[in-house]
Amino acid sequence: MPESNTECDVIVVGAGGSGLCCAAEAASRGAKVLVVERAPKIGGTTSWAVGAYTSSATPHQKRAGIDDDPDRHYADMDLVNAAGKRADNLGLRRLMTHGAPDTFQWLLDLGVEFIGPNPEPPHSRPRMHNTVPGAAALIYYLNRRCRQLGVTIRCDSTLADVVMKNGRACGVVVAHGDGGTTTYRARRGIVLASGDFAASKEIRGRYFGQAVVNAEAVYKYNTGEPLKIAERLGARIVNGDYTAFYIPRMRFVPPTKASWVLRLPPSKVVARLIQFGWKVMPQALMRPFIMRFVTTALGPEPNLFKQGAALVNTSGKLVEVDIASPAHNLALDPGNKGYIVFDDTIAKRFETWPDFISTAPGIAYAYLRDYRAARRDIYFEAGSVAALAAQLRADPATLQKSIDAHNRSRGDAGHRVTPPFYALGPVRGYINAMEGGLAVNDDLAVLGSDSQPIPGLFAAGSAGQGGVLLDGHGHHITWACVSGRYAAQAVLGTTPRS
Ligand SMILES: Cc1cc2nc3c(=O)[nH]c(=O)nc-3n(C[C@H](O)[C@H](O)[C@H](O)COP(=O)(O)OP(=O)(O)OC[C@H]3O[C@@H](n4cnc5c(N)ncnc54)[C@H](O)[C@@H]3O)c2cc1C
User: Distance from the CA of 345 to the center of ligand 1, in angstroms?
Assistant: First the structure.
């Protein structure tokens, strides 16, 4: 049935962190807002994130006696981004560093709980704050605020085109899950908050080699179509070839079944209970509980391989690991799927600091016992090669040959993997997030072929990353939230600059 209510003030494409911040901000300024989201549920990459948010001048810093301000954060970004060896977009950097404290307070006022600040050199001050229990809490509270303000959010609704009239973006064509399409009109403007192109092999292929192209995206809906639609209108992607962290990253597959813990809303009550439990309960009980909150794909440390673990694919064939980029060869292997195999000596070693299996939200460092307790789906123990092969559904002869070859390659002095065996996996080569976003001006208006703003079209979050460098932890979410709110103000002509 055709939809009757198809006109609003602001259309936001994407219901991740930046889109929901944008929608809530625009609605709080009296705008009628529609959010179209391609996935069946809201959250985007943001809901997969660990939840680090990096800001100066927060109440948490003040309580900890840390003297900090946005100018210092802005200056420190030269050090944080130094390894990138490329020019930053300083206008957008300023927008992020100077907008971060206000948006942090705005999120606190919505109900989001943070812990921190944590030090992260080369920042000169501890600035990294973490949402509790994870980034899903951001989405929970942003969604609640949007609902209170009357924002309409339509899932299963994919941006198919932007409607132009007299050179101005004035509407969108949206394809729905049932096969129908609707054209929605926006009186004030459209904000592309549709994330990055991590799930587009085609766009990745423009900038990177085969290992990156083959890798799996952690979040599968960011196929970059809105960026391509903007390109057809004359826009361009900046820094498509840049990565703040090496890619592909090796990660464990995420849990397939949601535990009862994951069905709890990531609300303040749960966050407070976790903080309380952390103080009074034995660690042995709390750690697995917190680990069960982790929906995100955690990444094993390269140190496992340095200490002598082997990597095999699903047939049991050895995959060579380059410590500088451990997932590179795995991503090139057909299937891009493998298991980390090790023995008792390594297992014991990875039970205590500084040898952890991975970092993990809430508990900082996860050891083998944490995986044994909370991720039984990816944890294996076996007394022999045949028993291990049966559990991994690998070919026993191939697995035996791989372990022998691995042991030979370690040389006489190196550690040899012997029974009993342990395995963790599947692991795959993954893409977390790409750094390329549409070129935008300081008001987040998308720039067209003549580098002039395309009237009515704005971009925020990863879609509007516009050449700002976000190295270090926490800057992507900070950027998503700050730029989302700012884009709303820019569309409505209410920015501090306007
Ligand atoms: C495992 C992991 C951990 C991370 N941890 C952190 C962290 O702790 N701190 C940090 O700063 N960063 C982190 N990041 C990066 C960070 O999560 C992202 O950069 C950020 O969340 C991007 O927000 P966004 O709103 O721009 O995009 P998203 O949250 O991805 O939202 C985009 C939305 O647009 C929708 N969409 C896409 N195409 C269309 C279309 N055609 N039509 C309609 N809707 C569409 C998507 O479905 C999605 O919901 C992490 C990333 C990963 C993968």
Answer: 39
